[in-house]
Amino acid sequence: MEINRTAVVKLSVPSDRRDDLKRTMNTFRNATQRFADRGWDGDDGYVITSGNHLQRLVYDDIRDDTGLHADLTVAAADHAANALDGCVEKMKAGERTSKPVFTSNTTVYNTNAITYFDGYCSLAAYGGSRVHAEYVYPDDSIQAEYMESDEWQKQGAKLRYDHQSDTYYLHVSVKKEREDSSGEAENQTVLGVDRNVDGYLAVTSTGAFIGNADLLNHKRREYERRRARLQQQGTRSAHLTIQSIGDAFANWSEDFLHQASKELVKEAVSQNCTTIVFEELENIRDRISNASKFQQWAFNELKRQVTSKAKQQGISVETVHPAYTSQRCSETGCGFTHEDNRDGDVFVCQKCGKELHSDYNAARNIAHKYIQNRRKSGSGGATYHLALKSGTVNGNGDYSPSTV
Fold first, then answer.
1. How many CB atoms lie within 10 A of CB 234?
2. What is the Cα–Cα distance from 145 to 219, expressed in whole angstroms?
3. Closest CA relative to residue 85, chosen from 57, 44, 53
4. Which residues have a Cβ under 8 Å from the Cβ of 143 and sit 6 or more positions away?
């Protein structure tokens, strides 16, 4: 079984090479935009989503015009192609989209453009030169193990620049092999997760309330207000500040969701769960109709990060149709479903009188629905248990107290 992780390492760049690296990143961003522009105005009205195709069309021109390293030019084409592919997927789903615009200071390095050594790396830079940058690790950092241990195989990386701290960070993809323990176990424990626009970002069937969604929304509104004021100024200084605060907010959002996903997977591990189940977002548009595109992005990004972290722990991530999960009573032996059961954050069953936090109730129902679907499909004789605060319940309603 392959384990994949990302090592985030601060770089110490020599003062006389910092401008070279910054120029490289700016040139990479501009090259990526040119590839995306050409792909968006593709042949016969179709968007081009193949990096190889984009290279055949404009690689030579971009290389001649920019002087960008050959491998970085290839990476720019692939980076643009991935963004264009995402646009096409949105079109297929009936969503509105527009041509990708690249503004962040991120440069993609394949294994030909970066070389790893003990304690430092060599990065391809503008004009064919290379920049040597040392790794900076905090005390007792797991990142040092990823970068220095022979167990972890280092692959490509993304170089990112933080304007506020004037710091370069390297995001390195690392992997190692471990013995495959796949195969459906006799007993499976399922953690249900309900995602929310307000209050908490996610609530689990074990009663864990994760991530301050109100803080996330506040930060977004604060960023948008500052950006709007700066756009009205229209000066070059304002434009540079917009780029700076945009990078800062993107980094903050990514870290916020990283911490939330980390906490969610930790909850699953602590309860010996084998499966994490989310509701399908495309089927709950009525419930999140007032959610911004950013909030919907956050929902999807949370699931993506959870999926990545859960895989490292041998935990699968699944989805179910969310119909009636917010209206059904999750109390064992009840299951009464009615729209009057839920009133905001409070769920009170009109039949049995059970009172729960409405999102906690929905998370329990999400896990319950997955278990029932598996039972109906005859999933290899496995026994599924719903993870609760104090124990588990199987598909027949039999309760077992927690041994954790």
1. 8
2. 33
3. 53
4. 7, 8, 9, 135, 137
CB burial of 111-130 (b: ≥16 within 10 Å; e: otherwise) equals eebbebeeeebebbbbeeee
pLDDT at 19 over 60: yes
**Can you tell me the distance from the alpha carbon of 262 to that of 240, in angstroms, rounded to the nearest whole number?**
33
Average pLDDT over residues 173-202: 74
Number of neighbouring beta carbons within 10 Å of residue 136: 14
Q: Can you tell me the distance from the alpha carbon of 306 to that of 201, in angstroms, rounded to the nearest whole number?
A: 13
How would residue 282 be classed by pLDDT, with cut points 50, 70 and 90? low
Among 311, 25, 343, 3, residue whose Cα is nearest residue 173: 3
CA–CA distance, 289 with 122 (Å, rounded to integer):
48
Structure tokens at 335: 């299951």
Q: Can you give the pLDDT at residue 388?
A: 66
**Confidence check: pLDDT of 385 > 90:** no
Spell out the alpha helix ranges (H) of 277-377: 293-312, 358-377
User: Whose CA is closest to 137, among 126, 129, 153, 148?
Assistant: 148
Q: At what angle are helices 293-312 and 236-270 packed, to 10 degrees?
A: 40
DSSP 120-183: EEEEE-GGG-EEEEEEE--TT-HHHHHHH-TTSEEEEEEEEEETTTTEEEEEEEEEEE-----S
pLDDT, position 57: 93
CA distance 265 to 257: 12
Neighbours of 108 (CB within 10 A): 21
Q: Is 308 exposed, middle or buried (0-12, 13-18, 19+ CB in 10 A)?
A: middle
Q: Give 305-338 pLDDT, tens digit per residue.
A: 999 888 888 889 999 988 888 899 988 789 899 9
Domains of the chain with bracketed CATH: 2-177 (no CATH), 187-212+263-401 (3.30.420.140)
For 352-396, the DSSP string reads T--EEEHHHHHHHHHHHHHHHHHHHHT-TTPEEEEE-SSEEEETT
Q: pLDDT category, 349, cuts 50, 70, 90? A: very high
Q: What is the C-alpha separation between 365 and 193, in angstroms, rounded?
A: 9
